[in-house]
Amino acid sequence: MRHRHRHGALIRAVDRMELPKDDVAVISGIGCTGRMPVYLDFNTMHTTHGRALAFATGLKLAQPKLKVIVVMGDGDAVAIGGNHFIHAARRNIDLTAIVVNNSIYGMTGGQASPTTPLNSRATTAPYGNIEQPVPVCELAIAAGASFVARSTVYHSVELDRYIEQGIRKNGFALIEAVSYCHTTFGRINKLGTRLR
Q1: How far, in Å, are 67, 156, 175 from residue 64 at the CA level?
Q2: 3-class SS of residue 63
């Protein structure tokens, strides 16, 4: 269900802007968001873990008229891709980065990610995470992003408006989409699943 909300928000934003599909590129890394471009009829790239912004930067430099949208998970964006994240924002490259924050590495066993909340459990933190989470929006602001917004997949109308604003904004735009991971994070932390 979360995938539908993320896709829907992105598709509604592009549709409202009446952008021709050939003028849009959607790039992803690896993880829960990695397969998103596969289901979209735009120019797409499914890249390696943490390198989506690097690929997107190259594409934007080669094809500056494209609207380049980069979809990453929290680990993809601010762990292995953290350096690319900081410098894409610092350089103010005209990209729209959507970071889907589910607070865990949900597809690889439930390890703690850079955004796992303090004291929350993960397979690599069975007694609770002892590290402060990376504040994604605050990091983008500090690095110099032109546009920064945060919403949730539950607030899909608000989320698609933020995505539209980010695409329209010249420079680096970050939209953090908080997306609860019931399958892994919820199970490990005994917070319930989608069935309860």
Answers
A1: 8, 29, 21
A2: coil
CA 80 to chain centroid: 14
Distance CA 88, CA 171 (A): 9
Query: What is the C-alpha to C-alpha distance for residues 35 and 37, in angstroms, rounded to an integer?
Result: 6
- pLDDT tens by residue, 49-63: 899 999 999 999 999
CA atoms of 143 and 184, how far apart (whole Å): 31
Distance (Å, whole) CA 12 – CA 173: 18
Q: Burial of 171 by CB count in 10 Å (0-12 exposed, 13-18 middle, 19+ buried)?
A: middle
Query: Which is nearest to 144 in space by CA: 98, 92, 96?
Result: 92
For residue 105, give both structure tokens: 């590495």
Q: Does the reported pTM lie above 0.90?
A: yes
How would you label 81-113 residue by residue, b for 16+ Cβ within 10 Å and e otherwise?
Answer: bbebbbbbbeeebbbbbbbbbbbbbbbeebebb
Q: Render pLDDT for 152-173 as a digit per residue (tens, 0 to 9).
A: 998 989 999 999 999 999 999 9
